[in-house]
Amino acid sequence: MIGFIKKDLHHWLVNLNYNMISLFIITLALFMFTGNNFLIVMAPAYIGMNVLRSPLRDYYRGWDKFALSTPLDRDTLAKSKYILYFFIIIASAIIFTILSYFLDIILEKLLLNYRGNNMLDTLSLVSTSFVMNFLSGAIVFPGYYKLNPEKISVIQSASYTVIAIINYLIIVLIRDKNFEILVPYLVIMVFASIIIYTFSWFITKSIVNNKEYA
C-alpha cells in the first residue's frame, strides 16, 4: 500500500507548483470579495482535488487492473487514496489557516480599513472547509468506483458547492438565532464529517471487492 501512496503523492507533488501558482492567482482575484477567507475554505479543496480525482487517472492508465495482479487485497489501491486524501486535507487546512492568520496581521498593518477574522470567524471557516472536503470525499470516492469515472467528475464539482453553501447558511442561521450553540455545532460537524468519510470507506471497500473488471 505504501507504494500506491507514494505513486499518488509523487503525482501530487509534481503538480503542486502549478496548483500553488493557480491558487495564488485565484486568491488575488477574489481578495476584494472574500479577503483571504478563500485560503481557509477552498485552498485545502484545491490542493486535495488531485488526490480526489486520482481514481479517474488510474482508470485511464490501468492502475486499477494492475493492482489486481499484485498479492495485495483488492481494496488496497482505494484504501491508499482515502489515507492520503485525509492527511492532505488535515495538513493543508492547518497550514492555510496559519497562513491566513499571519496575512491578517500584515494586512491590518498595511490597510487602514482591513479587519481580519476573529476566532469565531476562523473556526467557522475551518469547520466549513473540513465538512466540505470530507463529505465531498465521502460522496466522490465511492462514486468513482461504482459509476462511470467520467460522470462522477461533474458530481465532484457540484458536491463542493452544495455542501459549502448549505453549511454556510446553517452557520449564519445559528449565529442569528441561537448563537450559544454555534461552537458545539462547528465541532460536531467536523467530527461527523470525518465519521461519514470513514464510513464511506467501507462502502468503497465493498464496491471494489465485488467489482468485475473487463
In short:
The chain is an all-alpha fold. The protein has 10 helices and no strands.
What does this structure look like?
By secondary structure, this protein is mainly α. The chain has one domain. The protein has 10 helices and no strands. The longest helix has 35 residues, at 76-110. 34% of the residues are buried. The mean pLDDT is 79.
Oligomer state equals single chain
Low confidence ranges: none
How many distinct beta strands?
0
What class do helices, strands and sheet pairing give?
mainly alpha
Task: Assign an overall shape.
Answer: globular
Q: Tally the structural domains.
A: 1
Order of helices and strands: HHHHHHHHHH
Biggest pleated sheet: none
What is the CA–CA distance across the termini? 23 Å
Q: Count the DSSP helices.
A: 10
| Residues in helices, as a percent range | over 70%
* Radius of gyration from CA coordinates: 19 Å
Mean pLDDT: 79
Descriptive tags:
214 residues, mainly alpha, 10 helices, globular
Question: Helix and strand layout, with pairings?
Answer:
Blueprint: H1 2-14, H2 16-34, H3 37-41, H4 43-52, H5 54-61, H6 63-68, H7 76-110, H8 119-146, H9 149-177, H10 182-210
